[in-house]
Amino acid sequence: MGREALVAALAGIALAIGMTWPLTLHLGSDIGKDLGDPLLQAWQVSWIGHALLERPLDLWQANTFWPNVDTLAFSDALVGYAPAGLVAQQSPHAALVVYNLLFLGAYGLAFLGAYLLGRELGLGKLGAVAAGVAFAYAPWKLAQNGHLHVLSSGGIPLTLFLLVRGYRRRSAWLVLAGWLVAAWQMTLGFTLGLQFAYLLAVLGVIAVVAVAVGAVPIPERRIFVATAVGVLVFSVAAVLMARPYLRVIDEHPEARRTPAYVESFSPELRSFLAAPAQSWLWAGPSLRARAPLAAPDEMSLFSGLAISLLALLGVLGPVFTRRLRIGIAVGVVVCAALSLGVRDVSGLDRYLTPYRFLFDFAPGWDGVRTPGRINTLTSLGLALLAGAGLCVFVRFVRDRTGARTVATVVGVGLAAAILVEGLGPLSHPRVSAPPPAIRRATAPQLHLPAGFHDDLVYSYWSTLGYPETVNGAGGFDPAEYDRLRKMVRAFPDARSVAALRELGVQSVILHPDRAQGTPWEGAADRPIAALPLEREFRDGVVLFQLEPRRP
Predict the structure, then answer these.
(1) Domain hosting residue 196, numbered range
(2) Residue 551 pLDDT > 80
(3) Do both 385 and 459 map to the same domain?
(4) Helix or strand or coil: residue 547?
(5) CA atoms within 13 A on the CB side of 543
(6) Mean pLDDT of 268-276
(7) Strands 507-510, 445-448: parallel, antiparallel or unpaired by DSSP?
């Protein structure tokens, strides 16, 4: 199995490079999908590495959104990528290269994890390949290319592979390894970590019931010990990850998700027929289903025609046991129903979408913004069934023709059809380097213009030394920062300068090339003679140095 796993890992990397081509040629200059959330996540990974080296006890006290606290928890934090962050923290260029490598690696691990899980559950090699490509490259994932925390799903099937194999073979080390991988997956954020934790809980209950009724033998003591240690490690990881987020919600009521807000990101039934606009094959044919969606990138859940047809064949065929087929199929239906999110209505009608039960009664779910990402679990179930369906079809062709080679060619063709449905192409815009002049700005600092899309760029630029920066981007804007942005719309004027000095800001960096069409378009030329600040034009930016406020 070791050699097969190595080959599968190499195949996963090769597929990731091919499916995202030509990003590999531009690792140090471009970034996958767009200049939005990917820049934020490049900063995240870099900051985590920087914090571990410089002040590990203050990991969550990131340099952005100053002077707020726990600001790393203002969005899903990729703490599990800390080892890569040790390299990324060296410079903005290093942060970009490392992010792109993690992006490719996330696809590779998703393929590998699903492949290994498929093999352990009884799929042949071709069927496992189909399961791997179906999980990694289902069309709906094209819309998630800007969300590394969503793409980083390979730990889910890898955990299940290790646990199934460990319990079957009575291997305490494999069982422990499975729980350790589960703990690592949890440290990549609650977008997937929360749904994964609940999946493990459900599977745990099923396992306990199976032991209680005698369907499976009672595990040995060493398996109990490995399980107990693994569950403890997983629970500690979950608690340590949750604590800063709970503090943020207590400190910032604006971070709470209301039913109306979650509904604005909740998919509709038509979403399962809507492929993302990035889909090379299905964007056009699914336009009528996608066009009415309020947030197409979060609501397009099309899993692919080839995957769906093969999954149906996998439910009907005898590759998996009848009990396993039914279990996976039920899981797919339940997760698909949950991914429809909530409808902000009163009375019992609110529970017509089952996600509302989770939102109202289950811990953690009232903090989730995008229910459609439960489609990750739906996609895993479909991928396993699609792998089984491919095995059924290949066996049928082999039995009818008597030619193993023909059957193999058919199987490879079906796996290739899944890949074709998952083709992008992937956009890879060039990332601008931070202006050299910002090194001269003392911290704490504020960049103008200030706004979500600009702040994403400033967050990435802050990897140049990690200065305390008022700007920041995340899952919500702190109320204080929102008020400050409105207060400094006329900067530099007496009111805005007084507010910044009161806060403790020491420098303001104006980017004229980004200010066109904003309230700060003419800020570079506004008079400052009567104001307690100095102005310097340098390297395409304008540096305003504020005089410290006297005590």
Answers:
(1) 2-30+91-421
(2) no
(3) no
(4) coil
(5) 17
(6) 96
(7) parallel
Domain end marker among 394, 421, 448: 421
Q: Quick one: tokens of 285? A: 């044919």
Cα gap 143→271, rounded to integer Å:
13
- Residue whose structure tokens are 């149906």: 312
Return the pLDDT at 550: 62
Contacts of 200 (CB under 8 A, 6+ apart): 159, 182, 234
C-alpha count within 13 angstroms, C-beta hemisphere, residue 472: 33
Taking 80 as the threshold, does the pLDDT of residue 244 lie above it? yes
Confidence grade of residue 402 (pLDDT, cut at 50, 70, 90)? confident
In a shared domain, residues 150 and 230? yes
% of the chain residues with pLDDT over 90: 89
Place of tokens 């990138």: 297
Q: What is the pLDDT of residues 135-168, one digit of tens each?
A: 999 999 999 999 999 999 999 999 999 999 999 9
Q: What HEC string does 279-342 produce?
A: CCCCCCCCHHHHCCCCCHHHHCCCCCHHHHHHHHHHHHCCCCCHHHHHHHHHHHHHHHHHCCCC
* Rounded Cα–Cα distance for residues 224 and 220 (Å): 7
- Which residue carries 């460990």 as its tokens? 166
